[in-house]
């Protein structure tokens, strides 16, 4: 085997890789923020006593979780254009990723809600807390704290999955890699480098979520133990 | 260990090439005329130049060019199926007499085979919706141009940094064309042929070439050292460019005319 690696011609393109990595992080950030909001609302909706509301949320979750992300992206990108609505590839990529991760988040947070013991809620009622207070302090925050590890790994997966948006010409990290390797013919080196960058991005996200966990969950900060 | 089979293959290749050249005795034009048959290498998998129709008969602009040539010279025509990569080896090893298969003229190729004059051209263009007003590079500023990643068009436009073009890169021609058909892109950088086909697929979005990127001359490839054959073919090409027959064939399959300077 005669392997001849030349990283110099790849590394000199670092500004384009940097731009791509930045765009990947932006996509992940937007989709995580909006996806969490959708997830909380979706989970509340799915547990709703109104059959229509819970049915609609159920259909959304099942439709998204049972179709490939690439198909969803093409649906939004080409579908909107056929309806005469034209958005940039970045907006479409962010929207499609949000819709996708929103469904998974809904399901994870719903599992958290379901895990709150009935007795805990009854105890809160016994202490004369209002319904809103119960939902906020006794159900939602403990639920989110319980599923926090699942949520963070879902968001890291989302960041990695954003690579498929290169298909609709969003110039994120993988798109940059595809372009550089088609220009330099150094495919192996390019993808080795890009894999390393993705690992770094994942580590950055995990560190960020760990810090965020310390800030928003006082128990973790004070006792150092997960719920 | 890896070296042995490689060098063996190299020796075999050299022998084949050597055989090919020694077999080419006397004059290829005389041989063809005597046999009353011409063997033409054409790739049948690159529509609209070479392809199979619904009845699995060869058709396309290169196919009709070959048929016209054979008819004019009064010869029987035999197509030698080839791929892009095996076009040149086919004539070097005497499996075919000439190549008519979207063969663009490059200096590298000119070292190993001879070219006739150009019989057609491939145009690399920026095409936009018919309704878009664009005549020059200046007008394309601020418009998003769809392009297939890593193609010659991508490379050339990416290098035009001072023209401030906005490129949207797709992974293949199919996705790029879908972007144009669905309305995500109003301009595409591709061959004039593909640009013309977008309007065939979706008549409400007809694209027409606006700015020429580059023209690749397409010529007939002939084995080295056959000046009489090349001269005969050049004569035929000149005649049929002047009488418009080659232009007619090109227009029928590619949807646009040959460049003006070629036809005169």
TrEMBL record, chain A:
Q: Which domain of life is it from?
A: Bacteria
* Gene3D superfamilies hit by this protein: MetI-like (1.10.3720.10)
InterPro entries with a match to the protein in the record: AA_ABC_transptr_permease_3TM (IPR010065), ArtM/GltK/GlnP/TcyL/YhdX-like (IPR043429), MetI-like (IPR000515), MetI-like_sf (IPR035906)
A molecular function (GO) held by this record is: transmembrane transporter activity
- Grouped into one coarse class, the protein's main location is membrane
User: Tell me, what is an example of a GO biological process annotation in this record?
Assistant: amino acid transport
Q: Which residues form the signal peptide?
A: none
Membrane topology according to the record? Multi-pass membrane protein
Asked if Repeat is a keyword of the record, the answer is: no
**One cellular component term from this protein's GO annotations in UniProt:** ATP-binding cassette (ABC) transporter complex
- PANTHER family listed in its UniProt record: ABC TRANSPORTER PERMEASE PROTEIN, MEMBRANE COMPONENT OF AMINO ACID ABC TRANSPORTER
Q: Which family does it belong to?
A: Belongs to the binding-protein-dependent transport system permease family. HisMQ subfamily.
NCBIfam families the UniProt entry points to:
HEQRo_perm_3TM
Q: What is this protein called?
A: ABC transporter permease
Q: Which organism is it from?
A: Microvirga vignae
UniProtKB/TrEMBL annotation, chain B:
Question: Could you say which residues form the signal peptide?
Answer: 1-26
Which InterPro entries does the UniProt entry name for this protein?
Solute-binding_3/MltF_N
Q: Where is the Solute-binding protein family 3/N-terminal domain?
A: 37-257
- Keyword terms of this UniProt record: Signal
> Which is a Pfam family this sequence falls into?
SBP_bac_3
Name used for this protein in its record:
Amino acid ABC transporter
